[in-house]
Write a structure and sequence with these properties.
The complex is a heterodimer of chains A (141) and B (634). Chain A has 141 residues and is an alpha+beta fold. Chain A contains five helices and six strands. In chain B, 36% of the residues lie in helices and 13% in strands. Classes of the chains: A alpha+beta (141), B alpha+beta (634).
């Protein structure tokens, strides 16, 4: 969150970060919430002012601040809770993937965030599911 | 003068009696000289506090201190300090916690919050940017720290409010009560929790929507990158960090310096049961403080045994010793449970463990009977007894009432020779390094500003592990680089402590977490890029900062009545030869202690009574303070 606001706003201020980490210390868990660059983005569909568009190169959602009036419909529509309000300016904050080189990914020591090509995006999930099936198969022999 | 960064340049002053708050500009001349944290906190508290104030009276003040780094993404910035006069020792106290409290204070717009006076009824502070409210804590009084934090978040309708609070221990003025934050982080040592309790202040809730800026963004980012890469590449050298602080057991136990059964020995036969390997069996996840890539926190949930289900971040190295080996306890479940109780009730695990060890020895020697302990079988090795007695201490119930005073006062009250094994220095119970084995630690415990503390210098690294303080060569020359240090001799010990004071430990001013043992150059670059204080480009200025810090703390302590006699001897237990193990026969000798102390005073350029001379103070840049002579006459 800190490096995000730094890159985007030249200030260190978690309230201005485009990525947000929800902390649950008593469960020992933290969950980052961020834009998932949906292919059929709900935010684009709902925006009455066509202020959101997808960058064809990076796939990132870009808010045109000259069109955005801060109605917050996008924030309500987003299933990932990825759109936030800048409490100072009142405008909407949305991850733009830092032009294709996301700073958050680079700074994360434990690789909780990854920036991967589309055809590899489900690799971890695939491996995990296959692993569970193989475990069952091993048990049967 | 170029751009200044890192600071909000603003102090929040809060008076609990009048329920008034005000904003004041930060004295930037002092900020340049002392930076923040320990150094600046000492200078400000020296000014603010009435000499010889009773630590539990409304005259005492507690100051939430940050430094220019707090709120930034520089690794290790996730620290916060509280400074006050300690009810346990009667002298200086600085206590630190991880988590996110310090960062949030900066985002709210303040470098420092000074809290003074006493509220007329249980209160908690709600600091929301420029708005400060004094809210009733009547419903919270008596509640544990975890439930308090949850209740406040619910009442304020915001899960992301940062909370620092006390539990029943602080409310009951237990002398070593702590302040908890984010459930598992504590401003642990010295009884800061009791100070809050004496002020009827249950908690401080904090939220900030602002930002932190730095003087030279490009250089700052470079330094942060360098620090991050260093941490990622050298992580096996981080013996305090990645994997957990418990790794230290693998170094201290085999060298016989792991305090066992009230410091009666330095080797615990069952140390493996407390080790990282044992801890990891119950670990769910590594946990980090705000913005820190090291993630030293080990979140465990006991998988089996009597205390199955106990979930904490921990136990840390100190806790594994003081609530484990030092009590002869090898049941990691019992230690985890005792740790959980300490966190929730708001007790320092080190002093709690040290006090229980003393009580156990009293019990085994017949000084305490089963009637005294209310039926608890307080023998070494009984983990269940530890769990039971912790609660009594927090509530000052039965024998808990005398234990709540700490080993120094308790042993004085009880007598019967128990003072010989009340293991503390200046009232602060000793941490998990045996000073009879490592003479360096004996000196460190004697002279570290807040009493028996392992933070202001850490010579055991060199005594036993061939780890030299950062800046060792810079301070004492190339021929010292690999000098062989004998843990059982006074040679080099003063130099090790001095070297640590003036280099690495100045981090306590920035504030950078002392687990971040990075080359000085990286922190130097980062500090200058953050603050814009380019006088620190000169390494000598950096050294002077460390000396200024130690000297202003010395003046504070002298004014509060500290004298050479208070640091000349360690408890009698430490002079008793260790009966078995890798350190068999090791013991502190008074003539060596005398030598080390004299060497240290000489290096610090203090007189033979440990009082800084005017020349020394001027040489380190303290021109506005003098040793308080009225007190020294008597």
């Amino acid at each position: 969150m800190l490096i995000c606001s730094w890159k985007k706003e030249n200030k260190i201020s978690p309230t201005k970060a485009r990525i947000k980490v929800i902390d649950k210390p008593k469960e020992g868990m933290s969950v980052p919430l961020l834009c998932m660059q949906c292919s059929e983005p709900a935010c684009v569909t709902i925006c009455p002012f066509n202020a959101i568009s997808k960058n064809s190169e990076t796939g990132a959602m870009i808010i045109d601040q000259t069109r955005c009036v801060g109605c917050k419909l996008c924030m309500i529509a987003c299933p990932y809770g990825a759109i936030r309000i800048d409490p100072e300016k009142g405008s909407m904050l949305l991850c733009d993937l830092c032009d294709g080189d996301p700073a958050c990914v680079k700074i994360c020591r434990v690789k909780a965030l990854e920036w991967v090509p589309k055809n590899k995006a489900d690799a971890i999930l695939k491996a995990s599911v296959a692993g569970k099936i193989m475990e069952t198969m091993r048990g049967a022999t | 003068m170029g751009k200044i960064g890192g600071y909000k340049q603003r102090i929040l002053r809060i008076n609990l009696a009048t329920k008034k708050f005000s904003f004041e500009p930060l004295n930037m001349e002092w900020a340049r000289k002392y930076v923040g944290g320990k150094g600046l906190g000492a200078r400000i508290l020296y000014d603010e506090l009435k000499p010889k104030a009773d630590p539990l009276s409304p005259d005492n003040k507690i100051i939430v201190m940050t430094g220019p780094f707090q709120g930034t993404f520089f690794p290790g910035s996730s620290r916060c300090a509280m400074v006050t006069k300690s009810p346990l020792t009667g002298i200086w106290l600085d206590t630190y916690a991880g988590g996110d409290f310090g960062a949030e204070l900066k985002y709210a717009g303040y470098d420092i919050a000074i809290i003074e006076g006493k509220a007329d009824e249980p209160t908690y502070l709600w600091i929301d940017d420029e708005n400060v409210e004094f809210r009733s804590a009547k419903k919270l009084w008596g509640t544990g720290c975890w439930d308090t934090e949850d209740a406040i978040k619910e009442e304020l309708g915001d899960d992301e409010v940062r909370v620092a609070c006390i539990g029943p221990a602080g409310e009951n003025l237990v002398k070593f009560a702590c302040i908890s934050t984010k459930y598992y982080r504590q401003f642990g040592r010295g009884g800061a929790g009791a100070v809050l309790g004496s002020k009827n202040l249950k908690a401080i809730a904090l939220r900030g929507s602002g930002s932190v800026e730095v003087a030279d963004p490009e250089k700052f980012e470079e330094a942060a990158d360098e620090a991050l890469r260093y941490i990622m590449e050298k992580n096996e050298e981080y013996i305090f960090g990645i994997g957990g602080t418990g790794t230290l057991i693998d170094y201290t136990n085999p060298t016989g310096s792991f305090p066992t059964r009230n410091f009666s020995s330095g080797y615990f036969e069952e140390a493996e049961k407390l080790s990282l390997r044992s801890q990891h069996k119950h670990r769910l996840r590594e946990r980090a403080c705000f913005g820190c890539p090291v993630a030293c926190g080990q979140f465990i949930k006991m998988r089996e045994g009597k205390y199955a289900g106990t979930a904490i971040e921990g136990p840390e190295y100190e806790t594994s010793c003081l609530l484990g080996s030092n009590l002869g306890v090898s049941d990691i479940g019992a230690i985890a449970k005792a740790n959980e109780l300490c966190d929730n009730l708001g007790l320092d695990t080190i002093s709690t463990g040290g006090t229980i060890a003393w009580a156990m020895e009293c019990y085994e020697k017949g000084i305490f009977t089963s009637a005294d302990t209310g039926g608890i079988d307080l023998r070494f090795g009984n983990g269940d007894a530890v769990v039971q007695i912790v609660e009594r201490i927090a509530k000052r119930e039965g024998i808990g009432n005398i234990l709540a005073e700490g080993t120094r006062i308790a042993s004085k009250k009880v007598g019967k020779g128990s003072e010989d094994f009340a293991v503390n220095v200046k009232g602060l119970e000793l941490p998990a390094y045996h000073p009879g084995v490592s003479y360096g630690m004996a000196l460190a415990y004697a002279v570290n500003p807040r009493g028996g503390c392992h933070l202001s210098s850490w010579p055991i690294g060199t005594d036993l592990l061939n780890i030299y303080p950062l800046g060792w060569v810079d301070t004492f020359g190339e021929d010292r680089r690999y000098v062989k240090v004998d843990p059982q001799k006074s040679d080099y010990k003063a130099e090790l402590v001095y070297s640590d004071h003036v280099t690495f430990r100045s981090r306590f001013c920035f504030i950078i977490c002392d687990f971040h043992v990075l080359p000085l150059e990286i922190h130097q670059k980062a500090m200058i890029a953050c603050t814009g204080f380019d006088e620190y480009l000169d390494k000598n200025e950096f050294t002077k900062l460390g000396l200024r810090m130690i000297n202003v703390l010395r003046l504070f302590n002298l004014r509060e009545g500290l004298r050479k006699e208070d640091e000349l001897k360690l408890p009698k237990r430490i002079y008793e030869p260790i009966p078995y193990g890798p350190s068999k026969g090791f013991a502190l000798k008074q003539e060596e202690m005398d030598k080390m102390l004299a060497d240290y005073y000489k290096l610090m350029k203090w007189d033979e009574n440990g009082i800084p001379t005017k020349e020394t103070l001027t040489a380190v840049g303290i021109t506005d303070l003098e040793p308080s002579t009225t007190n020294l006459a008597g």
